[in-house]
Amino acid sequence: MQKKNYDNLKQDILKNRLPSLDYFRGIIILLMIQGHLFRALLDNGTKSASWFRFHEYIHGVVAPGFLFLAGFLFYHTIHNKKSFDLIIKIRSFLGIIILGYFLHLPFFSLQKIIRLWGTGIEYKFLKMDILQTIGFALLISIFIWITLRRIFIPVIIIIAFFSIASPFLINTPDNIFLAPFIDGNISQFPLTPWSFFLFLGILTSKFLKKFNLPIMILSIIIMLMNHMFPPIIRNIITDSGKVLFLFSITQLFRHSSFHGLNHFLEASRESLFLYMSHLMIIFGSTINPGLYYFFKEPFKMTTVLIFFILLIILLYPSAYYLNKLKTNNIKKYNYVKYTIYLFLFLIFLLKKW
What we know:
This protein is mainly α and 353 residues long.
């Protein structure tokens, strides 16, 4: 039964593949890796140059783009199905959340975390990042789909407006577990208002399947007129314009790929692997030091570009073959994945200090 479910999932993925979305994802991931590497390793003199402000403006599309992509794919893959495996979907969403908190572990030892809880480490662990926001927003979306399917889109529209208006409507609660979902001073990407981009992706998947020139023009106007919006939501509005502009551009690419880009696009489909691995390599985690730890003296542009090329050479072939394994042998893929997860979990559970 499980093999049949995975075979059906594979057929659905191949059937519902949108080439334009592959380009969108590929650009977002490439910008993500390059941007994080530049921020971590470039010297301050280079980062103070005027061109770097433009660099940061362009890279403002990365985090919103990931959320947008998650929402778009959620609705694109689910709305035509008469039925789906709810357990598999909820499990995958919870897995995204767990991986997000893994990246925030203060120590790779449950016993040490319990002993030092209350000393400030809890804020580092509980803060929301992109993965947690994606996971929780997808859980909200699947709950609405199950309970309010007939009015799913109207409810998503209401929640999207609430998300973007939340800075005006919600005060940070005193509860340490709730505050990271709302307070931008605690979390870099709190659930509100950042979940807006995921709901925007759902609405785009519903209404904008093809290239839409008015939307592209609107996105440009939004970016040019960003000074007209209240400062508290200015970045959210501006980033929405960036996301819709990039999405509009990539919708012009209706074919499966240009010659020579097949492997790149297939590797980019392993977005979660590329996200996790590049962060662990550049910034490190509780189980490994990263480049940022080893190279505390920043570098000039040429050296960082060499690091970028080497990182791409390492990560993209790995992601490509991982995608091939998942596509051709999902049983072996899951065996390897859950073996690694179990091994790490046991170490985390049993390690004393």
